[in-house]
Amino acid sequence: MSKGLLFVVSGPSGCGKGTLLAEILKNDNIFYSVSATTRSPRPGETDGINYYFLTKEKFEELINNNGMLEYAEYCGNYYGTPRKPVEDMLAEGRHVILEIEVQGAMKVMEKCPDAVFVFILPPSLKELRRRLNKRGTETEEVIEKRLGEAAGEIRQAYKYDYTLINGELSKAVDDMKAIIRAEELNAKNYPNYINEVLENA
Ligand code: 5GP
């Protein structure tokens, strides 16, 4: 069985990654990697579904036991990708999506050079501020911190394989689906297909 593909998706807080990926995840062959974090749950967030909400001690224990594929500190909290579920799903032939910030993505780039890196851009910084304010899940202070990170993150978008603008949601969803399909058809990802055709003489 062919291995699945690893997609790493980044974008500044408020760019609409969550909404976009919710549409993409309607495809059963795609597994969303649930991250661990030390930040507190937002209203409506559930442990094990949105994140594994851990204490700092537990998070550091996982780091020390090599349980994290990558991790980073963002706005004063740890965020990290538990290694095992990602490796298991890829081995089963399912695609895996990591929704992670830029420092973590750079670590995955070193460890998994075959992964596909997608950066989601907001239409503008002004629109990003408007969306964060409208979401209303963060305090004014946290919003300012996140906006402070945004420009620096966007400057790194050129390191990714693909960038897409999340202006109109349906268009961004189509673009993301196109990226996934293009990678599925990439000859370097599925060399076995070529042999299968030749063997079926
Ligand atoms: P939020 O607090 O808004 O849920 O997430 C803050 C940032 O952390 C977002 O940019 C999100 O993509 C990123 N993030 C979420 N999970 C992980 C992870 O496992 N590793 C890293 N490096 N970043 C993550």
Structural overview:
There is one protein chain. The protein has helices at residues 17-24, 56-64, 83-91, 102-111, 125-135, 140-154, 169-184, 191-199; strands spanning 6-10, 30-32, 35-37, 51-53, 68-74, 77-82, 95-99, 116-121, 162-165. By secondary structure, the chain is of the alpha/beta class. The protein has one domain: Rossmann fold (3-Layer(aba) Sandwich). The radius of gyration is 18 Å and the shape is globular. The model has no long low-confidence stretch (mean pLDDT 94). Guanosine-5'-monophosphate binds at residues 13, 35, 39, 70-72, 74, 79-81, 99-101, 104.
Instruction: List the ligand species.
Output: guanosine-5'-monophosphate
Note the beta-strand portion: 15-25%
Q: Count structural domains.
A: 1
Strand order of the largest sheet: 2-7-1-8-9
Low-pLDDT runs of 5+ residues are none
Number of helices: 8
Order of helices and strands: EHEEEHEEHEHEHHEHH
Rg over CA atoms: 18 Å
What is the CATH superfamily label?
P-loop containing nucleotide triphosphate hydrolases
What percent of the residues sit in helical stretches (DSSP H or I)?
Answer: 40-55%
Specify the biggest β-sheet. 5 strands, parallel
Mean pLDDT: 94
- Secondary structure class reads alpha/beta
How many strand units? Answer: 9
The name CATH uses for the topology is Rossmann fold
CATH architecture: 3-Layer(aba) Sandwich
CATH class: Alpha Beta
The coarse silhouette is globular
Question: Distance between the terminal alpha carbons, to the nearest Å?
Answer: 21 Å
